[in-house]
């Protein structure tokens, strides 16, 4: 994970494929939110900042690379969900994606 976003393996690289020796989920939801909103929500919860949160806060390149790796995942691909609206709206969006996923509509 060192280096720039441009240094990540290219699209369709084996690293982005779900490992064959693990159970494969039917759907993966990738909830994303702006760094500012993430910090605001964490502060509102009164939770102690974890080492990972500190890293995400201070190293925006690391955060960008993690997000890009998830976006490149294949079989199954991550379904992006904007987590900035209210909990109810995010849940509504997630349920809509789950219900409309072909694995669940059979």
UniProtKB/TrEMBL annotation:
<dbReference type="GO" id="GO:0006235">
    <property type="term" value="P:dTTP biosynthetic process"/>
</dbReference>
<dbReference type="GO" id="GO:0004798">
    <property type="term" value="F:dTMP kinase activity"/>
</dbReference>
<feature type="domain" description="Thymidylate kinase-like">
    <location>
        <begin position="14"/>
        <end position="91"/>
    </location>
</feature>
<protein>
    <submittedName>
        <fullName>Cytidine/uridine monophosphate kinase 2</fullName>
    </submittedName>
</protein>
<dbReference type="Pfam" id="PF02223">
    <property type="entry name" value="Thymidylate_kin"/>
</dbReference>
<dbReference type="GO" id="GO:0006233">
    <property type="term" value="P:dTDP biosynthetic process"/>
</dbReference>
<dbReference type="GO" id="GO:0006227">
    <property type="term" value="P:dUDP biosynthetic process"/>
</dbReference>
<keyword id="KW-0067">ATP-binding</keyword>
<keyword id="KW-0547">Nucleotide-binding</keyword>
<dbReference type="GO" id="GO:0004550">
    <property type="term" value="F:nucleoside diphosphate kinase activity"/>
</dbReference>
<comment type="similarity">
    <text>Belongs to the thymidylate kinase family.</text>
</comment>
<dbReference type="InterPro" id="IPR027417">
    <property type="entry name" value="P-loop_NTPase"/>
</dbReference>
<dbReference type="GO" id="GO:0005739">
    <property type="term" value="C:mitochondrion"/>
</dbReference>
<dbReference type="GO" id="GO:0005524">
    <property type="term" value="F:ATP binding"/>
</dbReference>
<dbReference type="InterPro" id="IPR039430">
    <property type="entry name" value="Thymidylate_kin-like_dom"/>
</dbReference>
């Amino acid at each position: 994970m060192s280096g720039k976003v441009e240094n990540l393996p290219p699209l369709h690289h084996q690293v982005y494929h779900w490992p064959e020796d693990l159970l494969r989920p039917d759907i993966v939801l990738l909830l994303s939110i702006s760094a500012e909103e993430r910090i605001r929500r964490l502060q509102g919860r009164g939770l102690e900042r974890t080492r990972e949160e500190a890293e995400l806060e201070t190293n925006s390149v690391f955060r960008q690379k993690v997000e890009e790796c998830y976006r490149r995942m294949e079989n199954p691909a991550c379904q992006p969900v904007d987590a900035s609206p209210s909990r109810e709206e995010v849940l509504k969006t997630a349920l809509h994606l789950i219900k409309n996923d072909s694995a669940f509509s059979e």
